[in-house]
Amino acid sequence: MRIEDEVKLDYADVLLRPKRSTLTSRKDVTLEREFSFYHSPKKWKGIPIMTANMATSGTFSMARTLAPYKLITMFHKYYTIEDYTEFFKDFHDPDYIGYTIGIREEDIIQLQKMNEAGLMKHFSFICLDVPNGYIQRFLEVIREIRASYPEHIIIAGNVVTNEMTEEIILAWADIVKIGIGPGSACTTRKMTGVGYPQLSAVIECADAAHGITNKNGACGLIIADGGQQYPSCVAKAFCGGADFNMFGCMFSGFDESGGELVEKNGKKYKEYYGSSSNRALIENYGKKDAHRASEWRHVLMPYKGSIHDFIQDVFGSLRSTGTYIGAAKLKQFPKCATFIRVNRQLTTYLESFETDK
Ligand code: 5GP
């Protein structure tokens, strides 16, 4: 047994110190970024925010809405070849969508079938997604997938430590997904005792990934995945060095989100549930997994209508952060950021009152 004494931080443990700024307006802050990748020869340009690959956020409807904003939709695992064939009849924006698989034999076979059906050319990203990226087989599968898909941008995760981030990039992934247990309704920390405070995980893994560069100067990249409760958390993740932000909770409850619309006591809600929740397993595979307990709560999110206003809110908040810390570009957020450790106090007294919105 060993104890690590160093304090590790979540988003709610810090604020950003305001700094002298020459920016006169939020409009001066550019959110678009352009990336080259450590392995893939592709280049990518857009606003580096993506939906979680969950049934409730990684939907076709979300992709149609987010792609014009240059935001990425990472599809959930449950669409069939027939679903995709239909979808690609009128969707042609590979830069802003990703295909998700796990590492089971049937996942790899499904990917092969997708490729044989000519569908993988429609995706820039392939996301290899497992709850625990520390198992040896994970690295083997990343290598196998890279051998078959040399051009695609490969995302792999989830992990939370620097050494594994490095291993995953050296095992031929381009982007490492960071986060174990920070999810808004995730009970992994409660059920298993495993986890890592998310902001510290992002800072440490970004440092590790960015330290690996190829001969063209492209480095490993990371995604901060989960735990963003407010747009400020997205800003803090970028300030901590995240190249991309991924979340599900803030993308849920909208018309474009998945999950059933539910009416209760005259109010409308939309379901929000995790990929390995009993709800998802029963809906998509007809049964619970006998060997593991669900690590996710099934939540009803207040229904919020269309997602367009929310997107503008996120963009507006990020631009505002930029003006406060003196960063004219998203890329400069880490350089301009100074975090101040605070007591957790993001929720204000009035937030507990109902509003008319
Ligand atoms: P949120 O945006 O709700 O805070 O977090 C979304 C993230 O939670 C996802 O991107 C994924 O990493 C994680 N997640 C999704 N489904 C599950 C699940 O069933 N169990 C756990 N423990 N995490 C999940």
What is the topology?
Elements: E1 14-16, E2 33-36, E3 43-46, E4 49-51, H1 60-66, E5 73-74, H2 81-87, E6 97-101, H3 105-116, E7 125-129, H4 136-148, E8 153-159, H5 162-170, E9 175-178, H6 188-192, H7 198-210, E10 221-225, H8 231-239, E11 244-247, E12 261-264, E13 267-272, H9 278-285, E14 299-302, H10 308-325, H11 333-336, E15 339-341
Parallel strand pairs: 4-11, 5-6, 6-7, 7-8, 8-9, 9-10, 10-11
Antiparallel strand pairs: 1-15, 2-3, 12-13, 13-14
Helix pairs in contact: 5-7, 8-10
The protein binds guanosine-5'-monophosphate.
Q: What's the CATH topology label?
A: TIM Barrel
N-to-C series of helices and strands: EEEEHEHEHEHEHEHHEHEEEHEHHE
Which CATH class applies here?
Alpha Beta
Query: Mean of the pLDDT scores?
Result: 93
Assigned CATH architecture = Alpha-Beta Barrel
Number of domains: 1
Give the overall shape, derived from the CA principal axes.
globular
Distance between the first and last residues' Cα: 51 Å
- Number of helices, counting only DSSP H or I runs of 4 residues or more: 11
Assigned CATH superfamily: Aldolase class I
Q: Kindly state the number of beta strands.
A: 15
The main sheet orders its strands as 4-11-10-9-8-7-6-5
Helix content: 25-40%
